[in-house]
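Dear support,

We are seeing what looks like truncated structure output for some complexes. This example has two components. We would appreciate it if you could run it in full and send us the complete token output so we can diff it against ours.
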Amino acid sequence: MTPTIPTPPAAAKRQMTVPTVADLAAQGKVPEILFWVGCAGAFDDRYKRVTRAFARILEHVGTDYAVLGLEESCTGDPAKRAGNEFLFQMQAMQNITVLNGYGIKKIVTACPHCFNTIKNEYPALGGEYEVIHHSQYLQQLINEGKVTVKGGESFQGRRITFHDSCYLGRANNIYEAPRDVLAALDADLVEMKRSRANGLCCGAGGAQMWKEPEPGKKDINIERTEEALATLSGQAAALDNLRGVETERTAPAAHSLQGSIIAVSCPFCMTMMSDGVKHQEQESTVQVFDLAELVASAEGINR
Amino acid sequence: MPTKLQPHLTLLAYLYYMLQPILFALLLLAAFGLFAWQVRKIRANILVGRGRDMSGHAAVRFRKTLLVAFGQQKMFKRLTPAFLHLIVYVGFLVINIEVIEIVIDGLFGTHRFLGLLGPVYDGLVAVNETLGALVIIAVAAFWWRRNHQPPVRRFTGVELRAWPKLDANIILYVEVVLMAALFLMNSADLKLHRLEGRFLPGVYPVSHFLMSLLPTTNLGTLHLLERVGWWAHITGILLFLNYLPSSKHFHIILAFPNVWYSRLVPQGQFSNVESITHEVKAMMDPTYEVPTPPVGPDGSALAPTPFGAKDVEDLPWTALMNAYSCTECGRCTSVCPANLTGKLLSPRKIIMDTRDRVEEKYNSPLIFQPNIYGEEAKHEPVTDLMQATLLRGKVTPEELWACTTCNACVESCPVNINPLESIIEMRRFLVLEESAAPNSLNVMFSNIENNGAPWAFSPSDRFNWADELFVAEKVTA
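Here is the complete output from our reference environment:
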């Protein structure tokens, strides 16, 4: 185990109430920024922890924010990627009606799929907003000094590799914001061979999340997790299969993986990489965290 | 026609010089005529696709074309092939300047007309010869990579069948022959002039060496060799020009317009189907007026266009131009996560299928029809050719459903081809016209419809994450 993580002194914690846009509207107010939670953020048990971590950060820095709460609905992204344009547009127009009805101007979301859809596909349907991904928002908070990523859990000496989400990276050219956030953590960052524009999909995009993969040699998330684990354990050289030459993959040495982290910034990547880590039976050594969780933990507010 | 009859010129040679401009003009006319005829058919094939307005943004497009097409920007993701390709590409550009000289010489009986450029010509010829030698080396390396090196993954794959493999090698062989003809011409000419004590404009780093290897000092033979090289070079170029429309090598022409007409929106942005927008708006607001659908020239209603794409004419014309710009390099397939993990999907195959299908159904433009690998391919058996479509006859739903829409193929294409768009269009057809989505996706659709989420959770639980939510007060040191 890496040097024991100093436990922060038992700090006071207080219950927070997440404001809804409807409540604010009743007081005649419009939040400066809407936190779009997304279906995974609202329903997936693992990603709910990310939603809660990000809400803590918003509360902690005093952002004027609100959520739609029960008025939020699926953006339609999985329907659109699967080819169901009709269902997508039904969802989109309902959401746009709600958002425009409240006069929302700016949206932040932790889901790259929601981000991409609202940012790029809603404008043609009458929904024009400034949309930012939570990695960009966190980067901004760190740059402004509103979050110092100190005082909580220390990541010093821990290995972290970042898995690019396709819908953040290639789809929208956001590569540096999540890396800047991780760089602020004072951790030992390692880069996978396939990263940034050459990143490898987790296997869940394009509505794959809701179906079994087509038959093949292996599942995509297993391939990607192998790559992440090999990078974290310093054996990435054995993984050069860009030319399809199947190399023998030795199981990464367990001791060197202890305490290392695969960082993600997408609920689908979270599921796929976590499943991949379990498949490799490394769940007791390697953890998958979202950027928001890492920041909230480092800031000491994630309880 | 030479002004002064050289002593070694026989009567036959004299006759040749009388006839050369006519012969050459006829050859040019035939070659360019045939090429234009083929290009017209390809243009018609591309315009079979659905209309899409790609006008505007000239400055952005110009910059993109300069970087990606002329500048080979995206090739440089992989250094070795990029460097080899750059040699052949620059060689192609420079040799095109030389072709201008050949055409002038051929039509007007001049000899090395551009020699009047003096030192510029010296430089041009020197660069040309150096590149010619490098091209031969690069082509040899390409040939080795393709045929003998431990298999490069992207040079294998189900879609690279007999013809695509042969086509790739033919291109390499032709390039060597063209370069060899160039050197034969230059070295014979140089030796001839040396022996006669005459001055030949230009600097010849390679032919200077080669001329000593020519096994003859006979002036007539040298003259003949020079003419053989000259004719072989230009005839080869013109034949190759007419081979292009049947070959993946057509990318040397279409890469430029294809990059010009790149999509300029973020890669994650998929098109919104406009007809559906009207329908949905009308559902949500009964007062919304749906624009009247276009009518035919005789005022009758046109058959409604299907949702998505079943066949080539349902794809936008840009997708069909994509198909003709594809050089089957397989960079898309080699980065495709589905393909990498052994699934059936290969973005390159989708593109190659599209080209094959449009030629099978519409103009088969070409002097010969080698592109079609249909009879070799293992796809769903379609007994009735009339019922065959792109989707049913070539691309299978299994391929389409394997796509994660990750955009790796789009990112990797050196000429900005977008296989993902065609995949989505065909998925749209499967879902909206045939209700043929995998069952698990149908479950997801109905979850979205009923619960506002792709999972079967109760919408009333959507805000549960905020219950009992505590935040620790930050301890300030």
